[in-house]
Amino acid sequence: MKFEAARSSYLDQLRIERGLSSNSISSYTRDLAKFELFLQNSRKDFVNLTAQDLTDFEVSLKAMGLALSSINRTLSAVKGFYKYASVEFDISNPTLEIVSAKIARKLPKALSVDEVTNLIESAKREGDPISLRDFAMLELLYSSGGRVSEIVGVNTGDISVTQTDDGDVTVLKLRGKGSKERLVPLGKFAVAAIEDYFTRTRPALAAKNSKSEPALFLNARGKRLSRQSAWQIVLDAAVATGLEGKVSPHVFRHSYATHLLDGGADIRVVQELLGHSSVTTTQIYTLITIDKVRETYSTAHPRAK
Predict the structure, then answer these.
(1) Which GO biological process categories is it annotated with (predicted)?
(2) How many CB atoms lie within 10 A of CB 192?
(3) Annotated catalytic residue within 7, 34, 133, 147
(4) I need a labelling partner for 7 at 20 to 30 A (CA). Which of 93, 100, 114, 118 fits?
């Protein structure tokens, strides 16, 4: 059997039966492409691969200068492929002895409230209608804690108003990993920024596209804003505020979670807002808060040292 056919069948299974998102499918495709290149260079048949061959593949990934996290992800993709192929095509699975290398846990970087505020405000440019879009996007990143892929994937119909006993609440629908949907409330600053962009800038952008585009954030051609363009908006804001090299779209998500916990939010609520399947993933943000407490204690208490 040809590797290309087995890979295609596996990707179809991920897409159709498991319902993985297009971003996840793209990641699996890239990782399996590395494996295919290894097979070609070593003139190996994937059907007869041994555990030693997989070790050689791991060595080749390290020789490419890939980060440990990237190597682990690639090996995980190959393990998933062979698990599927062993059942579907009745071939031996050489990956059973593969163990992912442990990665030292790094605390995510979170900005201060003032730094986040300055980043968002820097997007405002007098006389530039596009700046209203950029400003609204940065507000939404921080107000929702959404990943950049989720934010550029937002459609105009994903924002709604829900009536509660405490008044109306604006709610945003986000589509996360594995196409899982979640609802998050939006603050008044984000709501005001979105309304301003939607009424003053988006109509002119939408008019440049002959087709009706459901995306909330549009580019200069009236089409959905890309992840790359969203990244550039964040990087431009970082340069404008002297935070170059310290900021990425994901920093807004880290800051969102950290500031919620600092404000007394329950970790289970934060887990739901972030769309984490396990609270263990969310707990890493509590370590940031503990570090702040420890630092404050060591500098402020007269007998701490």
Answers:
(1) cell division; chromosome segregation; DNA transposition
(2) 13
(3) 147
(4) 100
More confident residue, 290 or 280: 280
> What is the average pLDDT across 135-156?
95
Q: Specify whether 80 is located in the same domain as 155.
A: no
Q: Is 155 helix (H, G, I), strand (E, B) or coil?
A: strand
Is 177 known to be catalytic? yes
Q: Per-residue pLDDT tens for 210-258? A: 999 999 999 999 999 999 999 999 999 999 999 888 788 888 999 998 8
Domain count, the chain: 2
Could you tell me the CATH number of the domain that includes residue 229?
Answer: 1.10.443.10
Q: Of these residues, 44, 79, 173, 250, which one is catalytic?
A: 250
Domain assignment present for residue 291? The answer is yes
Q: What is the DSSP letter of 156?
A: G
Annotation marks residue 276 as catalytic = yes
105 inside domain = no
Report if residue 55 sits inside a domain: yes
Contact criterion met (CB below 8 Å) for 137 and 147: no
Domain that holds residue 60: 3-88
Q: Which of 177, 182, 223, 227 is catalytic?
A: 177
Q: Is-catalytic flag, 147?
A: yes
Residue 271 lies inside a defined structural domain of this protein: yes
Copy the structure tokens of residue 61: 């990934």
Report which of 64, 78, 75 is spatially closest to residue 6, judged by C-alpha positions.
78
